[in-house]
Design brief:
The protein has about 240 residues and is mainly beta. It contains two helices and 15 strands. Strands 1, 3, 4, 6, 11, 12, 13 and 15 form an eight-stranded antiparallel sheet that branches. A seven-stranded antiparallel sheet has the order 2-5-14-7-8-9-10, with no helix packed on it. The longest helix is centred in the N-terminal third of the chain and has 25 residues.
Length: about 240
C-alpha cells in the first residue's frame, strides 16, 4: 500500500513539475511577430514632424521634408520586455534612430515623442567634441575618426545621451555605410542591450526613478535642412518576453 501511495505521489509531483515547465516556457515569446507586413503601414501611426513615410518594394521608406521637426512612425501597440530586430539602409548625411518604450503625452511638450532611442549615426565627419572616442587600448582615437555612435542609447526629447560608444571601438566600426545594417535590441526590465551587425554595442541599465517599463516602437526621420534624404527599413520583427 505504501508503495502505491509513494508511486502516486511521485507521479503527481512529476505532473506538477511538467505543468510548471509548460507555463514558464509558454509565456516567453517563442515566436517572432512581424511589425511590418511588407505592403502597408497598418499598425503604425505617424507622430511629430511631417516627413514622408511610404512603402516601396517591401520596405518602409522615410524621406526628409523641409521645415519640419523630427518625425516618428510609431507602432499602435506598446511593448514592455522584448527582443527587436530590424534592418535599415540610411543616407550617410541623415541622422536617425529606432525608438523603444517611447511615449507621446498631451501634457509633455504638446505630445512630443520622447523615450529610449537606439541611435543611427552614419556621419563621416571627424569628431572633435567631448566625450572623445577611445581605442580598444584606452588611448584617444585618431582625430579624423567620425563619431560613429550607431547602436548607442539616446534619451530622445528628454534626457540626452544615456549610453554612448566612446569606449566601444569595435561597435563604432560595425556600422556599414551604404549597405543594409541589422540591429538587435533586447529590453528586459531595467536593462537595454544592443547589437550592430552582430557586434555588441550598448549595455545600459537605467535608474529605478527614470525607468520607462513600456511604450511604443518608432522609426525616426530626423529633421533636416535637405529635402529628399532617405532611410529604409525592412524585416521589422519582435519577440515579446513575459
Amino acid at each position: 500500500m505504501k508503495t502505491l501511495i509513494v508511486g502516486a505521489a511521485f507521479l503527481s509531483l512529476c505532473a506538477a513539475f511538467m505543468a510548471g515547465c509548460s507555463q514558464s516556457t509558454a509565456g516567453k515569446g517563442e515566436d517572432w511577430t512581424h511589425l511590418f507586413d511588407g505592403k502597408t503601414l497598418d499598425g503604425w501611426v505617424q507622430r511629430g514632424g511631417k516627413a514622408k513615410y511610404t512603402v516601396s518594394d517591401g520596405v518602409i521608406v522615410g524621406e526628409t521634408v523641409l521645415n519640419t521637426p523630427n518625425s516618428f512612425l510609431c507602432t499602435e501597440k506598446e511593448y514592455a520586455d522584448f527582443i527587436l530586430e530590424v534592418e535599415f539602409l540610411v543616407d550617410d548625411t541623415l541622422n536617425s534612430g529606432i525608438q523603444i518604450r517611447s511615449e507621446s503625452k498631451p501634457d509633455y511638450q504638446n505630445g512630443r515623442v520622447h523615450g529610449y532611442q537606439v541611435e543611427i549615426d552614419p556621419s563621416t565627419k571627424p569628431y572633435d567634441k567631448e566625450p572623445k572616442n577611445l581605442l580598444a587600448n584606452g588611448q584617444p582615437a585618431p582625430p579624423d575618426e567620425s563619431r560613429s555612435w550607431s547602436g548607442g542609447i539616446y534619451g530622445e526629447g528628454k534626457r540626452g545621451w544615456l549610453f554612448n560608444l566612446t569606449k566601444n571601438a569595435a561597435a563604432r566600426k560595425a556600422f556599414k555605410h551604404g549597405q543594409w545594417n541589422l540591429y538587435r535590441v533586447e529590453a528586459v526590465g531595467d536593462t537595454i542591450k544592443t547589437w550592430v551587425n552582430g557586434v555588441p554595442a550598448a549595455d545600459f541599465k537605467d535608474k529605478p526613478e527614470e525607468l520607462v517599463p513600456k511604450g511604443f516602437i518608432a522609426l525616426q526621420v530626423h529633421g533636416s535642412s535637405t529635402a529628399g534624404l532617405q532611410i529604409m527599413w525592412r524585416n521589422v520583427r519582435i519577440k515579446v518576453l513575459d
